[in-house]
Design goal:
two-stranded antiparallel ribbon; 5 strands; 5 helices; three-stranded mixed beta sheet; alpha+beta
């Protein structure tokens, strides 16, 4: 069973390391999805004080052989005033991981965020949705 039941951190494309870029060991190592998940887990939406990963705001991660990591994420609403702060926190957290040379955080609105289907069960309970 996956430790990400909502599929919030599934790869947009399969990670295909090329020559010189490996997924474990060696000088040019990409972080695993678990390492990225661990790096993002402490980041909270400052308005509702809940983790963005458990809220389901991270839609996917794409690894590129050149050390670039692309993160697709959304916000709780398009008018979210803390959107730039959350994007900066995601960027900073992923950039600190070994092997990551660049991070591109893409803000997306499709599919629209829906906590009833995208949030973890714990978050749904906190929001009164279960």
């Amino acid at each position: 069973m996956s430790d990400d039941p909502q599929g919030t951190l599934d790869s947009m494309d399969p990670r295909q390391p090329s020559a010189g870029m490996t997924t474990s060991g060696g000088p040019e190592t990409l972080p695993s999805e678990g390492e990225i998940r661990d790096a993002l887990r402490p980041i909270q939406d400052p308005e509702i004080h809940l983790g963005i990963l458990d809220l389901g705001l991270i839609y996917g991660v794409q690894f590129e052989p050149n050390g670039t990591v692309r993160v697709r994420m959304t916000l709780t609403s398009p008018a979210c005033p803390v959107g730039p702060l959350l994007q900066a926190q995601v960027h900073s957290a992923v950039l600190r991981l070994p092997g990551v040379k660049e991070v591109k955080v893409e803000l997306v609105w499709n599919p629209p965020w829906d906590p009833r289907t995208m949030a973890s069960d714990g978050i749904k309970m906190e929001l009164g949705l279960l």
